[in-house]
Amino acid sequence: MRQALLSVTELTGSRHEIGLAHGRTHARLIQRSLEVYDRLFHDFVGIRWADARVEAERFGRMIERGFPEILEEMDAIAEGAGVEPIDILTLNCRSEISLTRASGGCSAFALARGGTQWLAQNWDWRTDQLHNVVVLKISGQDHAPLISVGEAGMVAKIGMNAKGIGVCLNAIRSQTCGEGLPIHVALRKILESPDLESAVAVATRDRVCSPAHFLVADAKGQAVGLEVHPGEPGRLEAEGGVVTHTNHLYADANQVEDFPRPDSRPRLARLDELLHESLPTQGEIGESKLFEILSDHHGEPLSICRHFNPAQPEEERMETLFGVVMSLTERRLSLRHGKPCEAEQALVVTL
């Protein structure tokens, strides 16, 4: 299905001003996201939205300790969208509430080649969130400008900042949930980081309360995979300029048990094959070549580019909702909304 190009929502000013503009601009999409997650929590966890709001309250206390400034922005998103602050908190803690018993997809990689540091990934999730994807360009008063591609009403997901820091996300299914920042709040703190050391410290010092994989890189050509959880994260260093990840844990000395879906390991093996064996070892590589990797259908339906699979239970059907390629060196993000194999154009945003 062909998707229209998304537009970029530019948000500037104080935390309150940024949140208020976010909420007002995307009020309809935020309301739809709340409806989607009401259904999703029921399908995955067997609870309704009112019960999810109660669960989210404890994460608010963790945010207050680790990143209190973002709460002002979240409250303002709620004000702008005409919903309660607890609704926006619950939306931003959706991973902690739902992913203990279910996980999405996502195939991500970092690649240093020809003097350019790339980050790229597909985001695979429930199809009913496809039209609630937003692109936010945020220029705050206490951090460098940043771009985040994610879901309306959420403070961050996948993106980069003007300092050349970028981050991708892989969901991990695990029953672990402890003390730390919720995943999407931690992603925003990474996107506000001035350098790679500060970005990594979000995982090693602040900690993340539930398991996920953060693929973090900078414009200098450094990249590291962080399998985050409430303890010390597992680290995956670049090999030949490459780091790859899907939806299972594989760093040495893992401290957390995960429950990956059967497609995760085949997708990781295919990413490794494409990046280590199919790409030229020298010379420049452009976005189109990397989008080819994100469009790969080898081994479908267990493929990197995920399409509707009627063989899966309805609540587990995940599809690729967007593909993103970032040149951190050139501060350029290219987005294909919908499946990257079908999108005819990419939205390009620069910092």
From TrEMBL:
The keyword Transferase applies. Signal peptide: none annotated. Residues 114-340 form the Peptidase C45 hydrolase domain. Gene3D superfamilies: 1.10.10.2120, Penicillin V Acylase, Chain A. This is C45 family autoproteolytic acyltransferase/hydrolase. GO terms for molecular function: acyltransferase activity. The lineage of its organism: Bacteria, Pseudomonadati, Pseudomonadota, Gammaproteobacteria, Oceanospirillales. Keywords: Acyltransferase, Transferase.
